[in-house]
Each structure stands twice: as structure tokens, then as C-alpha cells.
Amino acid sequence: MAVSALDLGREKQLLKFFPEPVRLHLLYTARHHGFKMSDLISKFDKVGRFVVIVYLESGTMKGGYLSERPESYFQEDKGAFVFEIDHQKANVFPVVKHRDSIIFNNQYNNENLAFGHCLKIYNNKDKTLCVDVKEDDTYTPTGWSEELEVPFMDVELHRIQSVGDVLLNPWRELSWTEKGGGSLRKNLVSFKPACQSLNRVRVLLMGPPGSGKSSFINSVRSVMFGRVLLLPFIGTATKGLIKKLKSYDIRSERGGKPTALTLCDVLALGEGETTGLTLTDALTVIKGHAPEGHKFQSDVPIKAETSGYRPNPSVNDQIHCAVFVLNACQVMTTSEDLTRTLRTLQAEISGLDIPQVVLLTHVAQVCHAVQEDVKFVYSSRILQEKMQKAAEVVGLPLSYVLPVKNYSSELSVSCNTDILLLSAVHHILQAVDDTYEEYCPPTPADASPVTV
Ligand SMILES: Nc1nc2c(ncn2[C@@H]2O[C@H](COP(=O)(O)OP(=O)(O)OP(=O)(O)O)[C@@H](O)[C@H]2O)c(=O)[nH]1
Ligand SMILES: [Mg+2]
């Protein structure tokens, strides 16, 4: 495991350079990951603020701060600074000439990262990591005398994380253990709806294009199969990939018995009644009139004449839980049109006495702590805000919002991602039981005498 060489005293000095309380998150150490520029560059996160530290053999620490991931050859960074810390002093030198604050090159064999000309990290002729220091007018005068290939012991890259990002105590409890995951899985496998007239629970996923409806289905199936499935119905199309009503039974394992859960995929919601899944069609699907495989057309609503139309759907043809799927990365900027569509749907579905929840996807994309480990979902302040917004957009209470991380780029399943997905499924099934237990008429089976 990579461990930082930073001792507490020098870490405190370094953290004082930041006006707000921050903490460091180690991404790279040369000693652990390799003395090559490509190793260092590959460890930058996609977003964030970063600090590079060089531990010189003299005992001094020199380094630089970037308020953004380096991307371009000359990167303007008004917040950049270089610094030096040793046992007597800690000095910070803010950038003066913003335009040249960061010089970056990640071309193969020519990789380098430099803070003006004050501190340059690059590969030497032997393709090993190497550091030059000197004084340069890009930053406030450092008084550093020029030293090429200065002897050093280690180079580290850290991400700067605001302390306020992670709450000390999670605001919802979840057992992040294999045992906890195992019992959630068992619950799903053995689940039988409390209402005996229900054979199975049909859950409809509705949301804008690309929100992760199909990925959720794929992810739940992946959890049950124990490996990430690669299926063709997941896309990156902005206009919506899935056009049909398609129901997926969730099996307990590959080739195993179906659980009582069926997840239904539909055309993405549009903004208003003219594109995407219309309000009329959504309600027709929910009431169970729409046939499996129905191909949606925004301008041709489903009606009695539609091929396969069910005029008298049974309780088992209906949808038993409506799930609004929203992307955590986009929820803050939900358009007025989409908000109106979601709220109208929510109000209409409430009128049908059908439980509703919000599934918030892409949770690892909005918070570093969650990206590191999804077990931080309920400790992440950023995510809490996104969940509050998701609740507001749809018009449901926060307790109805379920965060998930769908499998997207991973090739194998992971315990905590599974737990979060299974927990969402658990809440959906719970919501169905809570609702249907209330008003489901007793079936003949209820009245039959108990046989021992
Ligand atoms: N990182 C990440 N990516 C996700 C997540 N959910 C979905 N994606 C990605 O987002 C893209 C769209 O996902 P889909 O599942 O196809 O979205 P959809 O809602 O079914 O979209 P349409 O069928 O087009 O309406 C895909 O590239 C997925 O891999 C998630 O939780 N995290
Ligand atoms: Mg889809």
C-alpha cells in the first residue's frame, strides 16, 4: 500500500497554505508507483485540486499546487503556488504570471510537469523521474538557486479535499459488510409480495435519456450473476436508446429461478408531450394496458386500437412501483420542462395509489469520497445536496431518494456497489409491500384453513 512520507508537523504546515480546512488524499508516490512521469500523470483524478511534493535529500520539501488537473501545455492557474517546508520554515510563493503558471506535457517519452520554471518534474535520459529547481519570475521570488537533477528521495501527488465534503457520521445506516450484502441478496431471492394477489412486482424505470435506466437493470442482474454483464441495450445516445417496453425478470443467478422482481425499461422521458415517453403513454403502461414490446411513438399514443392493447389488465399486468431515474451529475441543472414533466407524472401516479421512488445514479461521479468507496454515499455532503435536489425536482420527500452507482466501466462486481444496488431494490420492494398490504383484497388463500 502506498504511504505518504509526510509527517504530521509538515502536513500541518502544508495545510496552512489553504484558507479553508482541507485534507490530503494520497494518489501517487514514486517509491510505490514508479519513478516515471507516466506513472505520476496517470494518477491524477479527472477533477480536483492537487499538490505535488518533492522530498529533497537535504530534508527540505518543495512542491507546487494546482487548482485544476493539468491538461494543456501552458495552463493558466490563478490559484497555483509553489512552496518549501523544512523544520525551520514554511514558505508559500503564489503565482504572479498566471499564463505560464503550469506547463504540462503528457506526450509519450516527453512527459513533464512544471510550475513556471521554478519546479520542473520530468524524465531524464534514462527515463527516470527527475527534478529541477530554480528561481523564476512566474511565481513570487523564491530565492531558490538553480539546481538541475536535484537529489530527491520521493515525489508524491495528493488530491486536496475539503474537510466539509465528508460528514463524520452517515445520515443513513447501511451494513457495508459481505454479510450485510448477503442478507440483502437473500431477501431479494426469497421475496414474496405481502399482497397475495401479486405474483410478482413490476417496477417501471422512467427518466431522461442517458440517466441510467437500462444500466440499473443491467447492474441488478450483474449483482445476481456475480459478474458485470455486457449487454447491447446501454448506450450514450442523447436522444434515448430504448424505444420499446421491455420487461426483465431478475433471476437469482445465471440460469436460476426468477425472483419476484421484474424491472421494466421504456423510452426516455421527453421534455413536454411532444418528445420521448408522453404522460399519456406512461400512465397507460402503469395501468397495464400496454403490451410487452410496444414500440413507443410520441405522436401516436397507445389506445384501444393499438396492437396487443389490454383493455382489462389484471393486477399482475400493472406496474407496482414507479421509479424516477435521475443522473446525480445533471440533477442540479434539471430544466424547467423536465421538472414540470416529472412533477405532473408524480402527481398523476400518486392519484393511482402506486408507490414511487427516485433512483439517483452516477453517484461516484459527483464526489471523490464516493468515487473512492461507495460506502461514503451517506457521508457525502455533496451527495446529500444532490439527493435533496432530486427529491425537490420530482416532488417527493428525501426519504424516497435512493442513490446507486451502476456498473458502467467496471468488468467485475464489487461488494459495496452490490450492497448499494441491493439496498435500492430492497427499498423498492418495501415500498410495494407497504402500499399493497394496505388495500389488497384478501385472496381465497387467506381464508383457507391452516393445515398442519
Ligand atoms: N459512471 C456511471 N455511469 C453510468 C451510471 N449509470 C449509467 N451510466 C452510463 O451512462 C450512460 C447511459 O446509461 P443508460 O443506462 O444507457 O441510460 P438510459 O437511461 O437507459 O438511457 P436511454 O435508454 O437512452 O434513455 C452509459 O454510458 C452508462 O454506462 C452510473 O451510475 N455511473
Ligand atoms: Mg436505456
From TrEMBL:
Pfam families: TLD
BP GO annotations: immune response
Top-rank taxon: Eukaryota
Chain ranges of the TLDc domain: 1-161
Xref: InterPro entries: P-loop_NTPase, TLDc_dom
Family note: Belongs to the IFI44 family.
Protein name, UniProt field: TLDc domain-containing protein
Source species taxonomy: Eukaryota, Metazoa, Chordata, Craniata, Vertebrata
